[in-house]
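Ligand: protoporphyrin IX containing FE. Inputs:
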Amino acid sequence: MKWLVLFHVLGATVWAGGHLILSIGFLPAALRTKNLSIIQHFEKHYERVGIPALLVQVVTGFWMALIYVPFSYWFSLATHHHVLLWIKIGLLLGTIGLAVHARLFIIPKLTTEKLSLLALHIILATVLAVSFVVTGLSFRFVYP
Ligand code: HEM
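Predicted complex:
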């Protein structure tokens, strides 16, 4: 379990950290100067690390969740760990939904006009990423 937590925390630093840097460090300048390339440049370099990090989160996350709650007991909200597990699954579906929407409807025909919609996407993805961290820490620190 220790190495699962280690990889999960490393993945979390890349996923949540990367989105916080994009939202706080790059997005304001892109919005101020209406310069899409500021975000495209960041994404081009971040994606190569971000997507594998998300995959690590999914694999290690579900593995740890199975240690906390055996699969046959998943379909109930009997304990706090059940609730935290379903919050994590909800956050994951939200993250995938945002990514698919951006891929299909924003990035293909990205223009400066769509900058505010892209900004909303980035901020929502960052809120979901930070919520993952808070929910994850709750497994051990709020409801041990
Ligand atoms: C990008 C997505 C995710 C991020 C950023 C994230 C972040 C975190 C963080 C920071 C922790 C606290 C680790 C610690 O206790 O030191 C954690 C714990 C945990 N996460 Fe995630 N997580 C993500 C996805 C998932 C997914 C998809 C699941 C699967 C349901 C999951 C299940 C868990 C579990 C079971 C723990 C408790 C592990 C423990 O500390 O004992 N996580 N997560």
